[in-house]
Amino acid sequence: MTMKSPIKTIALIGLGAVGVNFAYDMQKHLKKGQLRIVADRNRLRRYQKDGIYYNDEHCDFTYVADDEMTSAADLVLFCVKSYSLLEAIASMKHQIDDHTLVMSAVNGITSEDILSAHFPDATIIPTVAQGMDATKEGNHVYAQNIGELCFGAGDPSQQEAVEQIHQFFHEIQFPHSVKADIVHHQWGKFMLNCGLNQVCALHHGTYATIQQEGAPREQMLKAMKEVQKLAQCADISLSDDDVKRWAAMCDPLNPEGMPSMAQDVKAQRPMETDLFSGEVCRMAIQYGISCPINADLYHQLMAMELKEKTLDDFSYQLGVMDAFCEMVHAHVKPLALSHPFDCVETMKQYLPYAQQLSVQYGIGCFAERQSFISDLFPKSLNEGKCNIIFYRDISVYHRYWALKQQKEELVFKHRYQGEARIQLAYAYGALLGYDKESCAAKISHNHDKED
What we know:
The chain is of the alpha/beta class. Helices cover 48% and strands 13% of the residues. It is built from 18 helices and 16 strands. It has a 6-stranded parallel sheet, sandwiched between helices. Helix 6 (182-202) runs parallel beside helix 10, helix 6 (182-202) crosses helix 12 and helix 17 (418-431) packs across helix 18 (436-445). The chain is globular and about 65 Å long. The protein starts with 9 loop residues before the first strand and ends in a 6-residue tail after the last helix. The mean pLDDT is 93.
């Protein structure tokens, strides 16, 4: 006899089209309060004032502020845009502990690595959201096909967790499937998105744009073929049949619906270009291959997004970033920082250009909303500031966030002092490419340290 699933509480963040789509369906078979929607207080006030509607039915969700101290959830689902993932991670810090199972409906093939860097003790289950045609208009979400969550074990140690989620979803009649090779499946979805999402966005189209024969559908298939070639370099075998099968998944979708990036174009929101063709271009540089269709898509979509900006006001900062990107690419520095920004909104103006630079040099970048403070640099230089950070590869990304967590633990245990404090500054310096002598000099000459 199968044991009853231990999952009792679910926390979800992100009430875009995908988040509302899944939260609505889960809510139908759960007791009030079992599913909690987490958001910052400004969003919560908007949700509660205006309401959230799914196919014109009001959603009676339970809301929890991200700064509210609650017990950790058994299952957490991230349903945000890729560029909002770090903000969402900060909002979910009270929802996740070492017993929590974490799933990501975020597009692309990198969110699990990012989540594992921030929640190393939680179980991060590789996941793909697929088959939905949900469209969001203001506070209303419309869908004909709810789609499903596909997931599987990233390694054998996750088999029990996968079975727990499968049993729980079965109990609440939530659409899902378990994949024996989830990494292969994630690459397949990534391949589809690089074609479908980007081509529909470029042509301001709907699903009908690529459901019929013509230039846009051909462009979609060529972009997918490039990802197929790239996957082989990463030891992922995507066959011609896989390309056909994933492309065929578009056929039953509502012809008037739109994939997420086309919705972003219509609503004049930031797009996830960097997540798709940007990532393809970065990997193509690393593997020494050419992906011209995705490169063209990247430049055309970025031109659409940046058409109202000029470089004149940004030239100095961007010049600094360009130089640091080249250093990271040339293995001079594992990690590099932009100059600090006084506020997040200013930083966001630079982020699309920083992403272009990271694609050009085949490295990664992210927006750091709270600059890291150590004894390496003056406190006043970084306190209350934010940065754009460039990193060589995902292992450097993990090292950076592990260092931040190490400092938090030292401060919490009142041990951020003496040798431990000094060694943390040295470790940060090493990440930035400084040798021990340079670190020692910076620490010695810094007379503006934290108390």
